[in-house]
Write a structure and sequence with these properties.
The protein has 158 residues and is mainly beta. It has two domains: 7-67 and 131-154, Chitinase A, domain 3, CATH 3.10.50; 72-125, Thrombin, subunit H (Beta Barrel), CATH 2.40.10.330. It is built from two helices and eleven strands. It has helices at 42-48, 149-154; strands spanning 7-17, 20-25, 31-34, 56-61, 75-79, 84-85, 88-89, 99-103, 109-117, 121-125, 135-146. The strands form three sheets. Strands 1, 2, 3, 4 and 11 form a five-stranded antiparallel beta sheet that branches. Strands 5-10-9-8 form a four-stranded antiparallel beta sheet, with no helix packed on it. β6 (84-85) and β7 form a beta hairpin. The radius of gyration is 19 Å and the shape is elongated. It starts with 6 loop residues before the first strand and ends with a helix.
Length: 158
């Protein structure tokens, strides 16, 4: 069975940026996803299309086709009081370099990196950590199977 839409794909991979390992996914805990459901980078899926269990892969995704360029629009000054819980701010949370999970008014989740803590504001960077980077993948397809009706309906592998 080959990788195509509505197939559940299990694979291992190693991601490198500029020759340095960023992430490794091993066979004991493979990446499992529903192909074509929009969960993965489009170019990532495009490079896997047509492969089958046992096939090895190696490809690169250019920055513009991955997470794009970092932008100044993704760096924001947020009011310090939004970090209050029961009227208090955990000062250990607001340390430069800390990654803080956040959510916007529409419920979308983002990770922000604390860049600077000011008297009344916190400067945060919401650019993806791999913005500006070309990605290099090597790996192996472990399994390809038909998605169940429930997986298709939910838009992700179970």
């Amino acid at each position: 069975m080959v990788i195509s839409n509505e197939k559940v794909v299990s694979l291992t991979y190693q991601l490198k940026v500029d020759g340095k390992e960023v992430e490794t996914v091993k066979e004991d805990k493979p990446l499992v996803f529903l192909y074509g459901a929009g969960q993965m980078l489009p170019k990532f899926e495009e490079n896997l299309k047509g492969l089958k269990a046992g096939d090895e892969f190696k490809f690169e995704i250019a920055c513009d086709d991955a997470y794009g360029k970092a932008t100044e629009e993704a760096v924001l000054d947020l009011p310090k009081n939004i970090f209050e819980v029961e009227g208090k701010i955990d000062e250990g949370l607001l340390q430069e370099g800390n990654v803080i999970p956040m959510q916007n008014n529409e419920g979308q989740k983002f990770n922000g990196v604390v860049m600077e803590v000011k008297d009344d504001a916190v400067k945060m960077d919401f650019n993806h950590p791999l913005a500006d980077d070309d990605l290099s993948f090597t790996g192996k397809v472990i399994e390809v199977r038909d998605a169940t009706g429930e997986e298709k309906e939910h838009g992700h592998a179970h």
